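User: quick one, fold this
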Amino acid sequence: MKAPGSGAPFPLRFSAPPLGEFSHYGVEFGMYTIVRKWIEPNMQLPAAHKRFSNADIRKLIVPLFFEQLLVMLVGIADTFMVSYAGDAAVSGVSLVNMFNTVFIYLFTALASGGAVVVSQYLGRREQSSADLSGSQLLVCSILLSAVLTAVSLIWNRQLLGLLFGRVEPDVMESCVTYLRISAYSFPAIAVYNAGAAICRSMNQTRVTLYVSAASNVLNVVGNAIGIFVLHAGVAGVAYPSLVARVFSAVAVTAFCFGKDRAVRYRTADLFRLDTRMVWRILRVAVPGGVENGLFQLIKVALSSITAMFGTAQIAANGVAQSFWSLAALVGAAMGPAFVTIIGQCMGAGDSLAATYYMRKLMRITLLISVLWNVLVFAVTPVFLRFYPLDRTVTDLILALVLIHNVCNAVLYPFSGVMPNGMRAAGDVRYAMLVSVFSTAACRLVLSVVFGVWMQLGVIGVALAMCCDWAVRTVFTLLRYKSGKWKTFHVI
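Assistant:
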């Protein structure tokens, strides 16, 4: 079925305030006016027709950003403490985390599909259906995670042998220990992702920020005790993560059971499987799962290519990726905001508001992305002083961070963030197909061409990544301009 709506070119014109504003209000207020005018699209809606005020958008985005920043900083602290558990422990944890990431992506894709459905029901103001979709998302998350937990517990050694069979025996034992313990946390991860998606759908991102903060404090403190006090090695890292994840799942689930929530879990809906509602969720979630799964496989292939370039380039690429992750925070934070806002607009059948907020959110994303990527690049040389690396390696790291941050600032908002708005409208297959094609044909193939054949090494791999983003940007903007992304029904 088709829903009304037509596309329009994305406006990138800058509207500067009159010079008199600077002299009348002062430079500080003048800069605020520039920012306010920049994020406001030329296309306008009547005030009564706007579903989200600037304050609503700010309340949604700011906690998301700080939540992602907190998770990343805690990840750095974890890595630092794990290094004191010995080389075998570090290797085992890092290898199993690569394995676990595949499952986590599946939980994330399922939660994203549920968030789209919940957001659209909220836009329609159908409370009962929104509650049912949230409850069914929780049921699906529990069932999927239970299956993956069982697989990991029963066949953990076989799976690890298949993936990492050539590692040293002590590393393999560390892998088995860490996977057995972390497998028990899969249901907690899935349940938390489901609850977090629902909280974001009803613009309660502060809840996930507070829960994440408390959980990460538990994790860091637990790791410190397990490693430095109990000297428990891999188990000393794994059990605190399990406790922290269970805490997160319980806390966010308790919040979602609250009777005064815009969306809440209903006990009666948790003990049945509504196939129609589950299908609505999976129809959005499965393409995202396929996309993320392929991306992980490509990452493994790219790691093999990078391993061909020698120790110095491998080290430079590894350090640069830590700065890349920091620069990518804007995309991770803005994606859920698109799902919530565009999903509610499309659920209400208001394609005009969806277009308006798509433009506004893109302007906000571009502004924050440029400022954040400039800041990250500016502090990179400062942090590199703490790395015991040769000047040749640090120069290569700076070059990699510069290439990444320039393209991440201006291309990734279109290639990686904007498609979330289209998925929220139900246009999921197009985003998946573009991602699959671009990742394989551009990122993988061009990494071989630039990195190996043209002997550019890791610089070539970084350029291939930027080409991937550029191709996705072109296809995303063409889809946006056509208006076809607004012609889908999710519910």
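User: anything notable?
Assistant: Confidence is low (pLDDT under 50) at residues 1-26.
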